[in-house]
## 1
Amino acid sequence: MAILIVDDSADSRALIKRLLEKHGLGDILIAESATDAFALLGLDHPVCLAENIELILMDGVMPGIDGIKACGLIKSHACFKDVPIIVITASDDAETLEKAFAAGAMDFITKPVKQLELKARVNSALNMKHAIDQRKAREAELVKVLEELEGLNRELSRLSSLDGLTGIANRRHFDQIFEMEWRRAIRAGHDLSIVFLDIDFFKYYNDTYGHQEGDDCLKKIAVAAGSVLKRPADLLARYGGEEFVIILPETGVDGAYEVAQQIRSAIEMCNIPHSASQIADHVTVSIGVAGGKISLADKSQELIALADKALYEAKNGGRNQVRVAGAVS
Amino acid sequence: MQTYLDFCKFLVTEASVNNRVVIDSDLEDLIPGFIEKRQEDIQAINAAAATGDYETIINIGHNLKGIGGGYGFDRITKLGAAIEQAGKQQDGDKACELVQVMKTYLEHVEIHYE
């Protein structure tokens, strides 16, 4: 970070440079005119060089563009908003100073330059600049941390709605979406269906192949069932253990039965070996379906209970089949 | 007439001032060059006065006013201000006389570094 001296007088530039160096401020840039200063500051470049400059000492009276006008032009660039400019002027009359401050100067030094005054005013300007830089760095850090936090919250929210094993929605997310779809179905007068799915003889599967294979089987079932669902609003969730549930908005029992049959078939097609099954040599599922028009008088848990009941009927009816429950009410 | 009298008083005051100046030792190496450049200023002002180039007289006077005291030569600041004023008044003779005062001053000044 450098101090830029802009002065048309070589004697003045040499003096100010030497006095700053004496006070340990050795990183100094020199411009002989406002135009030179603009080039050094990169005012005409797409990338401004404000971050290289911590202070500008600007002679007030210069041929061509004078110091006060130059001050205004530099300050009109947003990236130099926080770079202090001290105007050095031989005339300390009120009008000159008013113009300098109006142009964006933060302070002034009268010529001839006195060491003590130069040191004090430069230190004060640098302290202010450092305080601003520190504040900006803290703000940037805060924004970064907030962005990270928002990202983590989003990820946390996503993870909290997923089943860790299968990667599909978990029971908690199902409960939220089901309540939402239930209210939407009542409001819009649409059908709503629920499909319950349970793996046949899954306990025997685990006993035979071990829990690791059991977990793999659950993942495959989730993939197979999910592949049948085509609409964004259809939701497949793990309800618990080897039980899965599907929400089918705007779908009556006939449509839900079709989807359920496709899922049952898709799982059979996976041909996952199951030597301990009493009905086949591969994994099969039993499915219960319930659905229809929903009215205000209905309770959401009743639809779930009906689908669950239909599932048990499928089990009792010999498994590897789909059963449809009666209407909700 | 009054202006002329003031000017004479100014010259008398200037002539009677002690020629000893104390300059910061950190500036010592800059001083020979500084004094050399004033010789150039003296010649330039004389030349400008001869051609009626008052703009140059004003500019040099302004510069002398701004730098003199900074280096420790308060007298040069005062003379510079007077030269600038002479330029503004388009008084080439006065500018030449002031330059002569500065020339004499620089020839006799005793510089002490501290």
## 2
Amino acid sequence: MFSIENLIGAPDIQKGFFVMLVGVTGVFIVLIIFFILIRFLGWLFPVKNDEDKESNS
Amino acid sequence: MNDLFVGFTSLNYKTIIMFVIGFILIYLAIKKNYEPTLLLPIGFGTILVNMPLSVVKHVSKVFDPFVTNIIKNNPDSVEFFEKLNYVYDSATGQAYKVEPGVLEILLNGGILTELFPVLIFVAIGAMIDFTPLFKNPVMVFFGAAAQFGIFATLIVAVLLGFDLKTASAIGIIGAADGPTAIYVAGQFARDYFGPISVAAYSYMSLVPIIQPPIIKLLTTKKERLIRMEYKEEKVSKTVKILFPIAVTIVAGIIAPISVPLVGFLMFGNLIRECGVLERLSSSAQNELANLVTILLGITIGSTMEADKFLQPQTILILIMGLVAFVFDTAGGVLFAKVLNLFLKKKINPMIGAAGISAFPMSARVVHKLALKEDPTNFILMQSVSANVSGQLGSIIAGGLVLALVPLLVR
């Protein structure tokens, strides 16, 4: 099975591709979580009427 | 007699070259307005640190016979004594106790401890308005796609012979996020601190020159003319307050090492959004930002000593920084083009280029390009949303690099 331990003695280029793969995927996953978070918070705390008026004025 | 003219006798061609580099940075800051808040202090710091005897870096150097003897009997102890402010001259076999000067104190206390970058994050957090992202949250994906350049540059840097840690710090230049670049360089590549910082800030100011040709190269005129519908979603104040807290918790759980980056940025943002700390928010955006920027800039300059800076690697790092910006822009644009293969309502692929962290320059560049193609096509709001998400994406990418690389290099 794949483990990070196997990569420790590997050449830097192999490690680099690992960082690239996990890094790009990781950034997407975290930002997808933020997207869900924004949607969820927006659903949980919708704009109140008085806030709406305030932002329009 | 020689001691009287020590200033003249200590001058050499390397010192002169560093004076010229310092002068060029000051010139770019004043005449060309390239990130003047940082390039000017860096330029002046470069001149200061390369002055004869470098008194601003080391106040005095006193021969220590006791430590010299210990090192003579045990050569492996050199590294230990270097941490205690000793310098060992291998040519003469003598050890000297060095008293740090003001710039060395600032470097040790402000940058190597990560204090200055973290304080800058508080200031930036207080300046960022995430509202455009809340109003158009789909744009968050462009903030992720445009981080591709960081990792692609990392690979190129490894292929050029840099070790993984240094290559990661070089790749982070592509985040277009100065404090993140400084933070990662402070952890992974202290020997290349100067060139990485200078590259990060110089290229950020060159976004209006670097991005347009890449965008034009990767898109057709038809694509650049795509109009995008803008549906503005309303955002409540509670969401704005809860967002920085929730982001800190999520990022802290996924990559605990990123907490100093994300946490302090979000702390600054919470001060801004809470609505009851106007004075603190204003202080963070102005006094704190200005004070730390002055100290940060001049301290970065102090790392640009001739012997460390005038190496072939410096030129490679400066080139790699440019490569990182190119890859980032291309990553964002190509991601939008791939999305268009599946979407009914097409996205203007230029928006992808705004996913880098250089705010608001990148959004403006994309908006201007769109207007140039069609003076009635307004994509500013979408670009700003992507640009704000790029600010989030860059610190997340920085945090992930900080978390991943030490696992592989033990």
